[in-house]
User: Fold this.
Amino acid sequence: MRKLIGDRAFYRRVVAIVLPIIIQNTVTNFVSLLDNIMVGRIGTEQMSGVAIANQLLFVFNLCIFGGLSGAGIFCAQFYGQGNQEGVRSTFRFKLMTGAFVLLVALAVFIPFGPTLISHYLTDGEGAGDLLVTFAHSTSYMRIMLFGLLPFALTQCYSGTLRETGETKLPMIASIIAVLTNLCLNYVLIYGKLGFPALGSDGAAYATIISRYVELAVVMTVTHRHKADYPFIVGAYRSLRVPAALAKSIAIKGAPLLVNEALWSMGMAMLNQNYSLRGLAVIAALNISGTVSNIFNVVFMSMGNAIAIMVGQELGSGKLEQAKDVDHKLIALNIASCLVMGSLLFGVSPFIPRIYETTDVVRGLATTFIRVSACCMPIYACGHSCYFTLRSGGKTIITFMFDSGYTWAVSIPLSLSLVRLTNLTIVPIFIICQLADILKCTFGLYLVKKGIWVNNIVGDAKTEQLPAQE
Assistant:
């Protein structure tokens, strides 16, 4: 047990890294909850339509995350090594990767978006009008496509800042953005201050504007304070990345990009399987997911702490210290989620009552929230194992552990339960969530074995360029 508990200096370091991320994610998710409630008070069809579109756009978000993660592994280790030109090169690689993912997403969503949305529309008790839901969802998605570019660019900047230990600026930019989003939601959804009432479309416009605000804050501060963020000096003089480094990042990063794409598509497929029990299930999952995300910020943020702290230790060659830090962070994450899960269970009956929807949707949402609360330590364990394996560059194993498990176990399990049994959605949901225990067991085995303990930038060479823009 002593190996799992750190000293005061350790926890001060954890708090310094994690607290800004937790604050940022908490504010973001709380405003998302208010946003969700605002749309939900218009009606079930609008809320379900937005939920379906966001489920598909979630695939793009995760592809950006995965595409940048490979470069992020190198970035954290380069920073631990003190190699600013290496950090600069990884930033350039992120820009090119983000542009590629953006073009692919537009090529898919523009022609095929309505068809993808239609697969989620299954009639059932408390579902609402399917045609109205489809109309709201397609309109919302069409508008949201204009927000993909600022999202991708912001992730390139914010990810690099976090990997170099700067978590406050992304937090401040995010808080400004979500507050902007909240104010504009109220104005545009309900038609206040002389603006027309745009409903769910108003929520889309508010999100787009807030994303450009966030990007403006991050870029402006970063470029005006080059001494604090030296990686940006000369970053745009060219987009050249040394061939050997680009090859290494591509080899390590490709599995992460494919992993996030397949995992996010797997989550979309999983929800589509659940939706076969009726559109009310999608509305309830939307409510429960939005509420749960507020409490999930702890284990999600701890994943970032593992990527940053363990990655920097590995990059500086302190391999045994990296193992020690990782074990303590995993233990802290699971213990924290025992507390957060208890709090989430306590509030589960209250928040669904705020929504202007059917009693069927409210009841399902409450149950889903309670199940998620009980399973939160399981989620924390799996999340920690994922980031541990990723920090050491074991991206192929990460791929098998994450999306491989989703497509080999979670999706066939849910589809079998929906298609081949008469079980209602609640026991199906419980069984599918508890199946992650198997994933956690395998993850802890890999972490304990230490196959992830690698310094992947020890032999990496980058050309030192003059520091001018």
Q: What stands out?
A: The chain has one domain: 2-449. The chain has 14 helices and no strands. The radius of gyration is 22 Å.
